[in-house]
UniProtKB/TrEMBL annotation:
<feature type="signal peptide">
    <location>
        <begin position="1"/>
        <end position="25"/>
    </location>
</feature>
<keyword id="KW-0378">Hydrolase</keyword>
<dbReference type="InterPro" id="IPR009003">
    <property type="entry name" value="Peptidase_S1_PA"/>
</dbReference>
<feature type="domain" description="FHA">
    <location>
        <begin position="325"/>
        <end position="374"/>
    </location>
</feature>
<protein>
    <submittedName>
        <fullName>Trypsin-like serine protease</fullName>
    </submittedName>
</protein>
<dbReference type="Pfam" id="PF13365">
    <property type="entry name" value="Trypsin_2"/>
</dbReference>
<keyword id="KW-0732">Signal</keyword>
<keyword id="KW-0645">Protease</keyword>
<dbReference type="GO" id="GO:0008233">
    <property type="term" value="F:peptidase activity"/>
</dbReference>
<dbReference type="InterPro" id="IPR000253">
    <property type="entry name" value="FHA_dom"/>
</dbReference>
<dbReference type="InterPro" id="IPR008984">
    <property type="entry name" value="SMAD_FHA_dom_sf"/>
</dbReference>
<dbReference type="InterPro" id="IPR043504">
    <property type="entry name" value="Peptidase_S1_PA_chymotrypsin"/>
</dbReference>
<dbReference type="GO" id="GO:0006508">
    <property type="term" value="P:proteolysis"/>
</dbReference>
<dbReference type="Pfam" id="PF00498">
    <property type="entry name" value="FHA"/>
</dbReference>
Length: 410
């Protein structure tokens, strides 16, 4: 015969269930606080401002920096008038800092902190997103305004879907396709994973034309497309906006708080359960590039390659024939990562790659804080690219981080 559970255990389970439900509701509220509504205000001809169009956006780094689509921030109405975040009774003006028309992205700064909103906690790169991953699309679809009361216009709509595939457009923009229904007004809004981290920036939706009577009506098909976050990172670097990069949303990352509180409730605090975000993955970033079997020195590539001359990466040789190499201190956004403590090097400091002619190299500064320099001491302009011949030496921040480009042709 089964023995009944002790009343204390039943009570603990009940408290836990209520807490878990409250935690889920709180998470939903946290998701909503990561989306902002952006409006374009123009003069109505009588000296007053009127709203001429809206889109979506989100905060990154702090409560002032806003990311949205280029076609939202640089819309004709916003150019003719003023772009602002709609919050409370007084819109907060925006100033565009940097943008990419090719990738349909823009980074702006608000005139002051945006109340009641929170920045996305981290960015997930496309390499850590796979087909069938669950995503949440947040934004302000205009058609919803027709149904909602005015005081609900500032609350975003959340739809859920799965990533169908990754694609690349004719403009070489990496996109994510999701089966969540989106329409006009969602543009610029965040796509987040179940952990609340940014996985994409909504850009467009699929439509089909349906004949109704004597006219064609454009109706959404049910697929949305978002710009991959890899295109956003260079713009954030250029605008000097801080951000964190995270890996996949695992069960432990998503449910860590619930599991920790469950252990505390059921075991009376005897067991403390914790989790930490993924640490630096230097060995993973360099595996197959630097290390040789038995711990010996790696073989020097015969073709065009990057060679470390000084600093922690002295003796490292990386093949450039396989593709570009980003150098920095954060292995989540750099292929070749310096170890912890190299704080004078930016997260993603510079990019080196083989030039199209196969004989020269391209050295690009990724809006680094302390600069990318040629051995002569000349600093590359922030964000600029320089074509250089084989034998060129360059360094990051100071000459203690020196590299050489070798093996091109003449």
């Amino acid at each position: 015969m089964r023995r009944p559970l002790p009343r204390g255990a039943v009570a603990a389970a009940a408290v836990l269930a209520l807490w878990a439900a409250g935690a889920r509701a709180q998470d939903e509220d946290e998701f909503e606080r990561r989306a902002v509504r952006i409006g374009c205000f123009v003069d109505d001809g009588n000296g007053r401002s009127k709203l001429a169009g809206t889109g979506s956006g989100f905060l990154v780094g702090d409560r002032r920096h806003v990311v949205t689509n280029h076609h939202v921030a640089m819309a004709e109405a916003c150019q003719r008038g003023t772009a602002a975040v709609l919050v409370g009774k007084t819109p907060v003006r925006l100033k565009v800092l940097t943008w990419s028309e090719q990738h349909d992205l823009a980074v702006a700064v608000a005139e002051h902190d945006i109340p009641g909103k929170e920045p996305v906690p981290a960015i997930v790169r496309a390499a850590d997103i796979a087909s069938r991953d669950e995503v949440y699309v947040l934004g302000f679809p205009g058609i919803v305004d027709e149904m909602a009361a005015d005081d609900n216009m500032l609350r975003p709509t959340t739809t859920r879907g799965i990533v169908g595939r990754k694609i690349e457009t004719a403009s070489r923009t990496g996109m994510l396709q999701v089966d969540a229904r989106t329409i006009g007004g969602n543009s610029g809004g965040p796509w987040v994973d179940p952990c609340g981290r940014l996985v994409g920036i909504h850009s467009r939706a699929s439509y089909q034309f349906v004949e109704t009577g004597n006219q064609l009506q454009r109706l959404p098909v049910g697929y949305g497309y978002a710009v991959q976050t890899d295109h956003l990172i260079p713009l954030l670097d250029q605008a000097r906006v801080r951000y964190d990069v995270a890996g996949r949303c695992t069960f432990l990352v998503r449910n860590g708080r619930t599991l920790a509180w469950s252990a505390a409730a059921l075991l009376g605090g005897a067991l403390a359960f914790g989790y930490s975000p993924p640490g630096q993955r230097l060995w993973n970033a360099l595996a197959g590039r630097m290390a040789a079997p038995g711990g010996g020195a790696a073989a020097v590539p015969a073709g065009p390659h990057l060679a470390g001359l000084s600093g922690p990466l002295r003796g490292v040789s990386v093949d450039l024939a396989k593709g570009p190499i980003a150098i920095g201190r954060d292995p989540r956004v750099s292929h070749l990562a310096l170890p912890a403590g190299c704080d004078d090097v930016s997260k993603r400091h510079c990019l080196v790659r083989l030039a199209p002619d196969g004989r020269h190299f391209l050295l690009e500064d990724c809006w680094s804080t302390n600069g990318t320099f040629l051995a002569s001491g000349e600093r590359l302009a922030p964000g600029s690219t320089r074509e250089v011949p084989p034998g060129t030496r360059f360094y990051l921040s100071d000459a203690s981080q020196m590299f050489e480009l070798r093996g091109g042709g003449t």
